[in-house]
Amino acid sequence: MIRHLLKLVWNRKRANALIIGEILLSFLVLFAVLTSVVSFASGWGRPVGFDRANVWVLQMDFDFMASEKGDPKLRATFERVLRETASLPQVEAAGGSNTPPYSFSTNSGSRTIDGKEVYLMYDDVTDGFAKAMGLQPIRGRWFNAEDDGTAYQPVVLDANAARAAYGDADPIGKTIAGDEKSGEKAMRVVGVVPEYRKDGESMSRGNMVFRRVAPNGAYGVVPRNLMVRVRPGTSAAFEETLLDRVQRVAPEMSFNLDNLERMRRSAHRFVLAPVIIGGIIALFLISMVALGLTGVLWQNVTKRTRELGLRRAMGASGSTVRRQILAEVGLLATIALAIGLLLVLQLPVVGIFTVFPPSAFVAGIVVSLATVYALTLLCGLYPSWFASRLQPADALRYE
């Protein structure tokens, strides 16, 4: 039976190629949209690892290359800005961050740890960052004056990075070797914090590493941002006061002040916009495919009046003919989905799991397959019913 269906499909390969292409395109678009939706929905209920309430972000504009080279003047200016900000009565805590939450700025790369490659995301922070962001170590400690003068760069891992690098072993005190080619210093783990999703609810699991910026300039780049936790009830008028104070300390720099809550809303709009647009495109595409598929199948059945009438004359029942048409539709869908599945399964090789969690990837595949199969079989119901109503006499009238 399958060989016979394959022969029928091959004999009408030109018409069937269009149907297969439409089904394949629908599957790929639907997979992309559903994977994004599932990833966003699954991450919404999990904690992000920091407290965004009453946190402002003071962005500083300076030459980042000077920061990379450890410019003493730039570092001294940053320390003055940090001290001046922390001294204000409205400020509870302040700390530097190079890649703050919801900024979509990322510093990442792979490091060899215990003989395996681990993909890590980095943020260069100062000692006050943990208090400003409400981070509480679950193992070890946060950075403090004990780390001054060390030959290595102290780091704090989030729970995902600790698990990826060391499994269930205790990472405290472990050393991550440096890289002479890239100039990366050796790092030693001093603490672990809960899972930290830098870009918030829309971010899948990442392996976050906080690298200490030494006050004495021994290691670490100068952060481009200050995370400022203000006291509850602080009015928006304090923004002007803060900007005026830091501008006096560093007149050669330009500053911009934002609110972490506003940054969160902007980040969500940025992430959701392509998902919504993709969903609208997918809806229209699937609607067009459904109408087109129904029309093409109905036309194919009409052209095959002689063949189907002959089958009825040879004793085939209406239900048998109906099952044959539905089986052909299912075979076309299977061919298209097999091609689509082959393409989709290549995505883990190019690093899709750094963007979407495996659970969302699998759910996107399963739901897309089920939806496309249901759609194609639904589109085949009327043409198959029409074919089952053909009588042997209809074949004679066709002649």
Tags for this model:
399 residues; alpha+beta; 7-stranded mixed β-sheet; 4-stranded antiparallel β-sheet; 52% helix
Number of helices: 13
The best one-word shape is elongated
Q: What amount of the residues lies in strands?
A: 15-25%
Radius of gyration: 30 Å
Order of helices and strands: HHEHHEEEHEEHEEEEHEHHHHHH
Mean residue pLDDT: 80
How do you describe this structure in short?
With 399 residues, the protein is an alpha+beta fold. It has 13 helices and 11 strands.
Task: Describe the protein in words.
The chain has 399 residues and is of the alpha+beta class. The protein has 13 helices and eleven strands. The protein has helices spanning 2-11, 13-44, 64-68, 72-87, 129-133, 159-166, 237-249, 260-303, 305-313, 318-344, 358-379, 381-388, 392-398; strands at 55-61, 91-97, 107-113, 116-125, 139-140, 153-158, 175-176, 187-193, 208-212, 225-230, 254-259. The strands form two sheets. Strands 3, 4, 5, 6, 7, 8 and 9 form a seven-stranded mixed sheet that branches. Helix 1 crosses helix 10 and helix 2 (13-44) packs across helix 10. The two termini are 28 Å apart. The mean pLDDT is 80.
Blueprint (SSEs and pairs):
Elements: H1 2-11, H2 13-44, E1 55-61, H3 64-68, H4 72-87, E2 91-97, E3 107-113, E4 116-125, H5 129-133, E5 139-140, E6 153-158, H6 159-166, E7 175-176, E8 187-193, E9 208-212, E10 225-230, H7 237-249, E11 254-259, H8 260-303, H9 305-313, H10 318-344, H11 358-379, H12 381-388, H13 392-398
Parallel strand pairs: 4-9, 6-8
Antiparallel strand pairs: 1-10, 1-11, 2-10, 3-4, 5-8, 6-9, 7-8
Helix pairs in contact: 1-10, 2-8, 2-10, 2-11, 4-7, 8-12, 9-13, 10-11, 10-12
